[in-house]
Predict the 3D structure of the following.
Amino acid sequence: MSAPQLDKTYDPKAVEGRWYQTWNERGYFHASPTHPGQPYCIVIPPPNVTGSLHVGHALNHSLQDILIRWRRMQGRNVLWLPGTDHAGIATQNVVEKQLMNERMSRESLGRERFIERVWQWKATYGNTIVNQQKQLGESCDWDRLRFTMDEGLSKAVIEAFVRLYEDGLIYRGERLINWCPRCLTALSDIEVEHEEIKGKLYSIDYPLDLNPTIHLTVATTRPETMLGDTAVAVHPEDPRYNGLIGKHVRLPLTSRTIPIVGDSILVDRELGTGAVKITPAHDFSDFEAGERHHLPRISIFDDHARMDSNGLTEAAVDQSIMGKILLRPARDARAIIIESLRQAGLLLKTEDHKMSLGKCYRCKTVVEPYLSPQWFVKIKPLAEPAIKAVEDGRIRIIPEGWTNNYLGWMREIRDWCVSRQIWWGHRIPAWYCQTCNGEVLVSTKPDGTWIIPLEARPVVAKTQPPLCPTCRGKDFIGDPDVLDTWFSSGIWPFSTLGWPEQTPELKTYYPTSVLVTGLDILFFWVARMIMMGLKFMGDVPFRDVYIHALVRDAEGQKMSKSKGNVIDPLHVMEQFGADALRFTLASMASPGRDIKLAEERIEGYRNFANKIWNGARFAHMHLAGTKELRPPAEHPFPNRWIMSRLNQTIQTVTTELDAYRFDRAANALYQFFWHEYCDWYLELIKPVLQDSAHPHGAITRQALQDTFEVWLRLLHPFMPFITEEIWQTLPHTGETIITQPYPTPLPAWHDASAENTFSVFEQIIGLIRAARVLLNYPPGQEVRVFVTHEELATTATLVTLKQDLAHLGRGQISPIPISQWPTSNVLHLVTGGITVGVSVEGTVDLKNSLDFLTKQITETDREAQRLDGKLKSTDFVSKAPPEVITDHQNRLRALSRDRAMLTSSEQQLHAMLEA
Ligand SMILES: [Zn+2]
Ligand SMILES: [Zn+2]
């Protein structure tokens, strides 16, 4: 076989795109329910259709592709199902911005035409992220690409909603919800970002109605909401307010009086004055207190968080104030109200106060608690089985530490507000008969959207009913709201497989095998999939949930455009190749710790790709031609050793992948190739390969080629492109590495004696090299070296390795008992049971060597002191991860061994100098 041609340097750009296209065209990623293997399925966390591949996706998707390619090679029936999410508010915002540039608005376009525009936008830009995923090498079954708004999935969403409604798990209610006054929609609790700010705490006096000389003092950070107060609460056992419960106070700036109620939940007697205002329409705890005491709710803001005329009228606000604040934003109204209270002598004091402010995760506008009719999912009956599934191990969360977070959160979970007041999304399948609801259906928003009051009675059905079941009327108004994006992603693991139809895909691939996700959406998404899966499929949606870390910059800072510290995976792939990026992310994916990513690291693994390439070029010069590796017993030592190491690497990689330790698997692959295969094995066999008459020539070429081929298959899931490119040039059967069997451990390859021998060998070469440096021998100079081992058998083995030692140690090596060594001018170096004697020839400048030694000793001491100092610092020891501490301890021990050897060498050289 003539040597195949590989370019001198590896060019990922020339290789990656070409292979991806071939793989995809030949259908290697396509799954079939009838495939014989045991099913293995992952549904991708669908990226937003507005998205562009960021480094978090790159990590998430690389890890999934490693699992998928690994399982596929193991012969499993593999499906990796891709898709994108319609991302309600995010997508609507993008298209609204586009319209703004054209001097149009959503409202001017109208709902139907706006939705058309969003679909147009999706057709043009919606595949951006999909194409970027292909660049990363993701082996998804693209024939099954889904979109949360496609026909099948929309059908599944409606089905799920109607079933939940029919089971009494969906209701309409007036609740305080988080409201974004800019996006004009409800937000779920987890869509609100909290920020600590410096605010003010205002103390306001409320005079007693029947005796204005007595005041109750309440404190608030939001004085403008006082106009909506409907009670003041005190602790029922607080002696300061003995006898006041049931009496009334005058609400300043209004003509209302409000009751004093006793409430031990809302009021902490130890805090402040012990009197608390209750504003049920503008505060979550007050809302609940209002429920307990049957208080009215007066909402004084409109949906833009401006002072609302209906609300202010209902609150009976004094006309003089009303005129000043009407339609003003809450912030402006605050100053006016504070000033009025001050003039009335009712503002007792103003203090600085730290407080937490909720902001819209989408547009960063301050979120308002806002009273409005919404659709809710009754969550407790769904959460209980979802808690149980994790408690009894039907779902495993990895790393296990997150299990308690999940359980804690699920036990506290509140009803899920699933309606959103936007246009882009799944319309809620509810209709209101205009005849039956004629009296309450009276108003619309400026954009023409109907406002559906709580009293309206909906008909919930999969499609608009032809006739009203009550009055047989035909005129309906559709519910204007759409569903929370997480509703459709909550049923993603089975809607994508064809549910509610009983498809072969659903039967074969559900429950899926593992969900790979970041911690940030454990509650947004993972918990909901578990609840919905158990509800509709009667089984968990996945067996394992693997939670990976977040990717941060090299200093551990969150990546953000404004900080300019973003690592763009597209740019990095362009520069270093997708393989290098994938390998970097996998090698850093330690459980539970943030990944501190620097571009240098990716560059480092690009060098690894180059190293593999050079290894291939070397192998090509010595190909065996066919694939028929002989049993280890027939091989000389270097082959037996590398085969044993490869067997160990196969074992490690498989075990670690089983445990989702991508980092350890990647590092085992790297260590084997770089340090064992290239640094040692290739060096050891060079003389054999260069000697065309060498008796071990043929078998060594075979070992060189076939161990490389096995390792390429082992590496393939991590670096799919370069492995395919090289594998194709080695003798092989089959048309692609993708469908080759994943290497399994070969117990016959294990050879403890070869590994022990190598360990002695490696130490001897290390000592010889150190001595050569110390004595300043030029690289080409042959040196006389004596070696011995305290065990006779090992010394005997060393005799058989004389050639190998001579080759790597560059000298005449004599493995003989120490009694036969020359008595003078030999530098003795001792480690373990090994003693190496290096002849000190007349050319050696002893004074120079001593100077060199002194420097080395100083450096060793300095480094030892540094490590010791760190290990003695309680701050370091308490913060550093255990493996870093172990590593420091090991290095300190190694330094102490070095120090002993250096001191001994120093004494020996002194003695020689004086002789
Ligand atoms: Zn917003
Ligand atoms: Zn009707």
Summary: Residues 180, 182-183, 360, 362-363, 365 surround zinc ion (ligand 1) (CB under 6 Å). The longest strand covers residues 192-207. The two ends are 62 Å apart (CA to CA).
